[in-house]
Amino acid sequence: MDTPLDRLTEQFRRLPGIGIKTARKLAYYIVQEPPERVDAFVAAIRNAKETMKFCSVCFNLSSQDPCPICSDSKRDHSVICVVETPQDVMAIERSGDYHGVYHVLHGALSPLDGVGVEDLRIKELIQRLNDPEVKEVILATDPDVEGEATALYLARLLKTAGIRVTRIARGLPMGGDIEYADEATLAGAVANRQEM
Amino acid sequence: MDTPLDRLTEQFRRLPGIGIKTARKLAYYIVQEPPERVDAFVAAIRNAKETMKFCSVCFNLSSQDPCPICSDSKRDHSVICVVETPQDVMAIERSGDYHGVYHVLHGALSPLDGVGVEDLRIKELIQRLNDPEVKEVILATDPDVEGEATALYLARLLKTAGIRVTRIARGLPMGGDIEYADEATLAGAVANRQEM
What we know:
Two copies of one chain form a homodimer. By secondary structure, chain A is of the alpha/beta class. Chain A folds into two domains: about 5-50, Orthogonal Bundle (Helicase, Ruva Protein, domain 3); about 70-165, 3-Layer(aba) Sandwich (Dna Topoisomerase Vi A Subunit, Chain: A, domain 2). Chain A has helices at about 5-15, 20-30, 35-50, 85-95, 120-130, 145-160, 185-190; strands at about 55, 60, 75-85, 100-105, 135-140, 165. A four-stranded parallel beta sheet of chain A has the order 4-3-5-6. A two-stranded antiparallel sheet of chain A has the order 1-2. In chain A, strand 3 (about 75-85), helix 4 (about 85-95) and strand 4 (about 100-105) form a beta-alpha-beta unit. The longest helix of chain A has 17 residues, at about 35-50. Chain A is globular and about 60 Å long. The interface of A and B includes residues 18, 26, 31, 37 and 85 of A.
């Protein structure tokens, strides 16, 4: 029973967060769509794959090099926000409050998964600090084990370079509920309490 | 901000069950994959779309015409199981217990969505009943409002043709819990109780 439909299902299943049932549903859907919509889908994949490259400065995904953020003179180039993935850049940009630039590590330190210092864009981050304009690095790696370890490693490394290093705040999310918050979040929120 | 990545995100978002967050995740994932994996994905889409056609007998999706089920002489061609979609054929085939043939309606009657009798493969089903070999039609449309209405309509239509018409049983699913069953399911399970 290895039909072209099964093979398409397998391809969908490889994608993150897609289980076997969703993969089957998507494969059946695609096959039953009008040809022009399938063509548009394939063209969008090809176009995105061919035009989106990594910015040679911050390693964010962009169709330009340097990316629009790195080449924007209105942004504050004295602050570099270090994140794990291009998706993180997009999330912070959507929040609309940050006006500095970014540096995408493309992962977090994870010895168990074989991800070490040389697998991340850390060397390139250090090189950017040679620019005397840079005054602060904000560590915005995820608040999980790997992200915390990466932040700790970078904090030690960058402080020796005499630069201001900060870490994004941890606390209760907006709309969150104290009753249902996990212990680590709640402990962090109390420890990081602020004057009113 | 209409980048090739945004356009790919939009394409993923069109697919059933894919929200904006999943669409973004998939678009970012695809763009960061090795080119050969993206090529394999695109080839699988193209191949499935080009080779999978509707069987001219039962209207199931297949790369052959008639499909392997319709052309299998070991199957019982006297029983036709009527379903809404090709996915339903696959689900019943996986259960492994049915050895008759199928007829795919490609939808269910839904006046509110503008789906009428002429939009489904009902005419083609009636034509198949001209074959004197056909003894029974099993109505296996979904147990929801549209599926029930379709089953009711077909039952009336087919009974006038003097053919045996049955409906798949409703009841509690295996591993189900009486306490959490909805009223309609429970009422149906009691009404359809069987001797032990």
